[in-house]
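dumping this here so i dont lose it
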């Protein structure tokens, strides 16, 4: 991907690729830009991700008398393919 500038704020665009999908994300305003073919591929990859994710549940945390706050939520996986694309 050639060096691009964000059409919204003029910031530098950073390319990110996951599998066959390539998108550009603005480092300043976090705007996301992709072409029409990548948009169709993103839709297919998202559907494939959900098809294979299945039903998964986390065990409930054990509550004890000495706790002063609820335990933090456990998050072991992303909620969507798109979330995996833009995490860190």
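and the seq i came up w/
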């Amino acid at each position: 991907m050639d060096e691009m500038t964000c059409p919204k704020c003029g910031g530098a665009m950073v390319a990110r690729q996951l599998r066959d999908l390539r998108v550009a994300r603005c480092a300043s305003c976090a705007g996301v830009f992709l072409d029409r073919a990548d948009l169709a591929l993103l839709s297919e990859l998202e559907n494939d991700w959900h098809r294979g994710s299945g039903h998964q549940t986390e065990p409930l945390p054990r509550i004890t008398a000495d706790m002063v706050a609820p335990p933090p939520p456990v998050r072991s996986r992303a909620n969507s393919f798109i979330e995996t694309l833009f995490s860190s």
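The mean pLDDT is 79.
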